[in-house]
């Protein structure tokens, strides 16, 4: 089998070389030195996990001729990483993975950058958000939990989340608006910590991403009440008993009219050429075909939407407006 | 309990496979090299090598990566003792007595004591993991923000209470540390603090930059002033130093035992190895009959923090596996690795992946033994580095420091900051301000503030949250006792002295 693969690889390489020699020299751009993969978040979080998985997949399947090196630049809620990419005008050996802080960080902190300062490459997936409570708590459905929040005085229920004035708090504010009751929002450093604080009963609920809390669900420590998406998740693998991601109802159907998805996308510095962008779009298309990537999508119950080019830019424009609106309503814009 | 031992026995079978033993040796050696270069650190080392392990079985891969981690822990002690440059936050307390020992020609002893203590600390922590893994995971869940703050408070208090410098100078130094720790993003409000629009300050002051500057560069400046003479030069290299030191170590069994308990406890509560090492040093200094000599090269001052740090570092693996919460940046990268191999850390890992978990635990036993043998054989070699004339070694240290500072964030600004901290360290030393409280505040200030404010958010501003249950009250009580100990001691003496003339 090994020999066969090697032969196959050899043949492909030979074909590729022939093809290359026939094309004009400028046609296909290739990286000539290691590519830096900036993660504008700390080690161990969702973006970091995805970047390191991508690095692993690309290395394992030899999808790139040079190395991909993951570098964390998490300062200033990710501002450090985005500024680094923004200032590397025309450098094709640098890419950055984004999370919602692409929109929220400049609005909340005033750090000077905007997604339009970068070159959009592709949307890799959208990350879901789920409303979780402790499995010991009496709330079996989202409706029961909503009723309990409504019945109690303002600030009785504690919602834990990652960071401040970022996606988790934006969702919390939207939930508060929908219910007409205030909750106490407690920010933590990372999603894993939030899940454990919920298991320990130090907070009442969280809006963890699926991958951050799935193992606690499997261990019957946490209970998902509803997902903040317009339709239920498609994954039917059993997780606890006969429950699966697909059996979690949408929050909208449970009377909580909140919908939020988080971008997992890739960007390049400004001023790179179309060939250079096309190379990375093509690279990530190949990554999406690997079994490891499909497994990651399933494990984390991601929404595996892929977009590039103008379609992606239009989506970004819309998402930026949504975030601006949400943050303005919540009073999270810097300088207020 | 019994089935744990059956699993462990199988685990040893997996871990003692010759290929896995080879991986352990390679991992430890790589780790030591990574640990010796400040700034490169365990987290970066593991992250760089992570992709190499994708072709291995998960058990082999985690053995290689955890051994790099052990190696880096061992290696961190080398630079702390020889050059006063702690490579990791938890090595800071090791420099207090380790470096003075090296300067008086006892580097070999200090290194042997450090390595042996690390081994003992880690070993007992693994034994604890083996015996009471499920209980421990439950205990860790009790820790909310208030309990965490209480632990940090205890760390600060036990350190201040034992300081021999004037309390005013200790407090000034600690406050500078808190101010530096506040720079960057405020986690609770999501606003930038004290950055004055300077982009380089977004990330705040990294602990490593501060420590490499304050300790490493500061030390070089001081030595230069003293006439380019490195006193370690007089050190005789004695290959029997390991045996000689070992003969003296059993005397300190009480210190070791205390440090193991502190370390295991701090590792499980996800406070981590840094508060453990400071607390163990502080308490040893207060309790030991050689306490007055601490800071001038007392071997017990090396034993205490090293034992505690490594017991904590090892015990911290347990919450990572059982709860999925990494106790350190290195653990976070390892956690990423687990996910790529399709292993989901969390409450079900011990049930669903028993073979992997016990293989890992068995490899902790073997990896530590392999590590100890490897590093002890290098003691005479490393100690002999000090025989190189200072005029040659100083530029080399400077270059290593600069590379280390650069590697932390791949940023030239950090190298400049390191120089600034170097001058600050020199000035503070010349004016007799203690550096340790400053460093402690930089390392823990952020986390302590975060835990404090999270607690108050949860209690709607009521300070009674720190006395709201027996666990948090008893830790806070211990903290107050430790912080006020000098006062209590004075009162006690007065009370005892006054009745006599009467």
TrEMBL record, chain A:
Q: Which domain of life is it from?
A: Bacteria
Q: Does the keyword Cytoplasm apply?
A: no
As given in the record, the signal peptide range reads: 1-27
Q: Which keywords describe this protein according to UniProt?
A: Signal
Pfam families linked: TctC
Under the heading InterPro entries, the entry gives: BUG, Bug_dom1
Q: Which stretches are annotated as coiled coil?
A: none
Which family is this sequence assigned to? Answer: Belongs to the UPF0065 (bug) family.
User: What is the protein name for this chain?
Assistant: Tripartite tricarboxylate transporter substrate binding protein
Q: Which organism is it from?
A: Ancylobacter radicis
From TrEMBL, chain B:
The UniProt keyword set, sorted, is: Membrane, Transmembrane, Transmembrane helix
Residue ranges of the TM segments: 20-50, 62-83, 110-137, 149-164, 170-189, 201-222, 260-284, 320-344, 356-376, 388-406, 472-492
Q: Which Pfam families match?
A: TctA
Record carries keyword Membrane: yes
Q: Is-annotated flag, keyword DNA-binding?
A: no
Which part of the chain is the DUF112 domain? 21-440
Instruction: Fetch the PANTHER family from UniProt.
Output: BLR4373 PROTEIN (PTHR35342:SF1), TRICARBOXYLIC TRANSPORT PROTEIN (PTHR35342)
For this entry, the protein name equals Tripartite tricarboxylate transporter permease
């Amino acid at each position: 089998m090994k020999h066969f693969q090697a032969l196959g690889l050899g043949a492909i390489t030979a074909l590729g070389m022939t093809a290359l020699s026939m094309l004009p020299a400028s046609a296909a751009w290739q990286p000539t030195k290691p590519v830096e993969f900036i993660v504008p978040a700390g080690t161990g979080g969702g973006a970091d996990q995805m970047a390191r998985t991508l690095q692993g997949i690309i290395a394992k399947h030899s999808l790139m001729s040079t190395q991909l090196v993951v570098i964390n630049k998490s300062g200033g809620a990710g501002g450090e990483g985005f500024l680094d990419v923004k200032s590397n005008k025309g450098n094709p050996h640098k890419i950055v993975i984004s999370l919602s802080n692409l929109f929220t960080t400049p609005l909340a902190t005033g750090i000077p950058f905007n997604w339009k300062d970068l070159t959009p490459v592709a949307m890799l997936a959208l990350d879901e958000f789920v409303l979780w409570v402790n499995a010991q708590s009496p709330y079996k459905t989202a409706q029961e939990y909503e009723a309990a929040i409504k019945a109690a005085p303002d600030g009785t229920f504690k919602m834990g989340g990652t960071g401040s004035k970022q996606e988790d708090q934006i969702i919390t504010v939207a939930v508060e608006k929908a219910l007409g009751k205030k909750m106490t929002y407690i920010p933590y450093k990372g999603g894993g910590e939030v899940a454990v604080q919920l298991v320990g009963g130090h907070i009442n609920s969280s809006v963890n991403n699926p991958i951050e809390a799935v193992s606690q669900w499997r261990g019957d420590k946490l209970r998902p009440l509803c997902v903040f998406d317009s339709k239920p998740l498609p994954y039917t693998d059993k997780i606890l008993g006969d429950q699966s991601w697909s059996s979690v109802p949408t929050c909208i159907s449970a009377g909580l009219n909140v919908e939020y998805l988080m971008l997992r996308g890739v960007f390049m510095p400004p001023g790179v050429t179309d060939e250079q962008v096309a190379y990375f779009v093509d690279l990530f298309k190949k990554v999406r075909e690997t079994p490891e990537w499909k497994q990651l999508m399933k494990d984390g119950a991601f929404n595996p939407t892929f977009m590039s080019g103008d379609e992606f830019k239009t989506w970004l424009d819309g998402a930026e407006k949504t975030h601006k609106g949400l943050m303005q309503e919540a009073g999270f814009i810097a300088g207020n | 309990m019994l089935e744990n031992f059956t699993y462990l026995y199988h685990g040893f079978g997996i871990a003692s496979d010759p290929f896995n033993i080879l991986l352990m040796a390679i991992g430890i050696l790589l780790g030591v090299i990574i640990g010796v270069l400040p700034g490169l650190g365990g987290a970066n080392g593991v992250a760089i090598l992570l992709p190499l392990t994708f072709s291995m079985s998960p058990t082999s891969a985690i053995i290689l990566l955890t051994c790099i981690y052990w190696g880096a822990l061992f290696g961190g002690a080398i630079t702390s003792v020889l050059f006063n440059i702690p490579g990791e936050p938890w090595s800071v307390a090791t420099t207090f007595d380790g470096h003075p020992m090296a300067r008086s020609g006892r580097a070999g002893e200090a290194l042997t004591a450090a390595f042996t203590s690390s081994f003992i600390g880690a070993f007992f922590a693994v034994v604890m993991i083996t015996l009471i893994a499920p209980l421990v995971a439950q205990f860790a869940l009790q820790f909310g923000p208030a309990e965490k703050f209480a632990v940090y408070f205890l760390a600060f208090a036990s350190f201040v209470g034992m300081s021999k410098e004037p309390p005013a100078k200790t407090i000034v130094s600690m406050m500078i540390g808190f101010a530096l720790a506040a720079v960057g993003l405020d986690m609770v409000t999501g606003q930038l603090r004290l950055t004055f629009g300077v982009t380089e300050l977004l990330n705040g002051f990294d602990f490593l930059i501060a420590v490499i500057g304050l300790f490493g560069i500061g030390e070089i400046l001081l030595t230069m002033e003293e006439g380019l003479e490195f006193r370690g030069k007089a050190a005789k290299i004695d290959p029997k130093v390991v045996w000689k030191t070992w003969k003296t170590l059993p005397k300190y069994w009480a210190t070791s035992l205390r440090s193991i308990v502190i370390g295991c406890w701090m590792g499980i509560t996800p406070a981590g190895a840094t508060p453990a090492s400071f607390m163990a040093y502080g308490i040893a200094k207060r309790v030991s009959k050689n306490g007055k000599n601490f800071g001038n090269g007392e071997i017990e001052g090396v034993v205490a923090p090293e034992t505690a740090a490594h017991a904590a570092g090892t015990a911290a693996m347990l919450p990572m596996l059982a709860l999925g919460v990494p106790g350190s940046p290195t653990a976070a990268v390892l956690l990423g690795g687990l996910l790529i191999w399709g292993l989901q850390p969390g409450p079900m890992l011990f049930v669903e992946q028993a073979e992997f978990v016990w293989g890992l635990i068995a490899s902790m036993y073997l990896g530590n033994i392999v590590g100890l043998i490897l590093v002890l054989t290098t003691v005479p070699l490393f100690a002999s580095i000090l025989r190189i004339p200072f005029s040659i070694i100083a530029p080399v240290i400077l270059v290593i420091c600069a590379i280390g500072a650069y590697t932390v964030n791949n940023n030239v600004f950090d190298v400049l900051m390191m120089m600034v901290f170097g001058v600050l360290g020199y000035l503070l030393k010349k004016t007799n301000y203690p550096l340790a409280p400053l460093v402690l505040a930089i390392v823990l200030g952020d986390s302590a503030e975060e835990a404090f404010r999270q607690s108050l958010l949860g209690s709607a501003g009521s300070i009674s949250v720190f006395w709201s249950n027996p666990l948090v009250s008893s830790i806070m009580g211990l903290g107050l006792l430790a912080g006020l100990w000098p006062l209590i001691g004075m009162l006690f003496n007065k009370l005892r002295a006054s009745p006599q003339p009467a």
